[in-house]
Amino acid sequence: MEPGIDSGLNTAVERYYDITLDLYEDLWGEHVHHGFWDPGEVPGLNGADRHAATDRLVRELVDFAGVPAGAAVFDLGCGIGGPALHLAGALGCTVEGVTLSAQQAARANEKAEANGVADRARFHQRDGLANGYPDQAFDVVWALESLMHLPDRAAFFAEALRLLRPGGTLAVATWSVRDGELTEDEQELVRQILQHQVMPDFSSLEEHEQLARAAGFTDVAVVDWSKAVANSWDPGFAQIQQYEQGRSVMRNLARERGVDVLGFFHAGPLMKKGFDTGVITYGALRATKPQPPQDSRPGRTP
Q1: What is the pLDDT of residue 296?
Q2: Domain range for residue 70?
Q3: Which residues have C-beta within 8 Å of that of residue 82, sequence separation ≥ 6?
Q4: 141 with 171: CB under 8 angstroms?
Q5: CA atoms within a 13 Å half-sphere pointing along the CA-CB vector of 88
Q6: What was the pLDDT predicted at 73?
């Protein structure tokens, strides 16, 4: 088995997203990730709805990382293609997206065709750490809420460095955990979230920064967006209660798809508690692949 690849975990993640794809799209639209709000904004009162807020998160990561227009982008954990469609559309990027879920990849390709960007955005069922792309193939490696599913995050940063051209950009947004030791109750909360969301563990934002530097990235910067995204688990925003109110609907889903689908419903209140207590955090990371040193010996052209 190649380093960083866990076939058992990959299978579990693939199954989770296959059986919940329509639930996420029905509730959250094309963006299967957190939203972003300014301080004091509340969804449904004075803040953006879920569609506008999730769109904004993509733009915030583009701006924070400095993703250039027209870049060649590798999208690790592309989901159903929402962020990639923005990159290929508004920014004119070419995007190669990979996901463990065949159903997600198929849906993303359908959406790219419907949005007129199929020539610039392509999606594949493929392991992000065994993706088959050559060295230095991309200007940007983009990972929006996908690192949580990877058991070997050091392998991710090494692979991102391999895929990037010199001077290329790494753009990450991820769930994370508060740095430092957790109490037993806090550890139990994290354990339940990991179980229901099919994730091996969480790293802190500080650990992500350390891993990026250790892999060889330069200009590494991290920003904590926990307060900006916490509204994502407000019951009105998540809208999971429309299913929870119909217990017969949940029972039927469990019969049709297996009990694993119920993790989709349990995650909401657990994540809200995590953000409310500060145990769960969320942030973005940007980094640059360094340029090779120039040969300054006499007679050499720089």
Answers
A1: 55
A2: 7-181+202-236+281-288
A3: 29, 30, 31, 32, 33, 54, 58, 111
A4: yes
A5: 27
A6: 98
The angle, 0 to 180 degrees and rounded to 10, between the axes of the packed helices 7-28 and 102-114 is 40
Buried b (16+ CB within 10 A) or exposed e, 203-220: bbbeebbbbbeebebeeb
Global pTM?
0.84
Cite the DSSP H helix spans in 29-152: 50-65, 82-89, 102-114
Taking every pair of Cα atoms in the chain, the longest distance, rounded to a whole number of angstroms, is 79
The SS3 assignment for 151 reads coil
Amino acid, single-letter form, for residue 109: N
Residues 6+ apart with CB under 8 A from 209: 220, 222, 285
Structurally, the chain folds into a number of domains equal to 1
| pLDDT less than 50: residues of the chain | 1-5, 19, 239-246, 249-250, 253-254, 257-263, 301-302
Whether 171 is in a domain gets the answer yes
pLDDT score, position 234: 80
CATH assignment of the domain containing 170: 3.40.50.150
DSSP state for residue 249 in the 8-state scheme = H
Look at residue 277 in the predicted model and tell me its pLDDT.
Answer: 97
Bridge-based pairing state of the strands 121-125 and 94-99: parallel
DSSP-derived pairing of the beta strands 138-144 and 218-224: unpaired
Look at residue 267 in the predicted model and tell me its pLDDT: 77
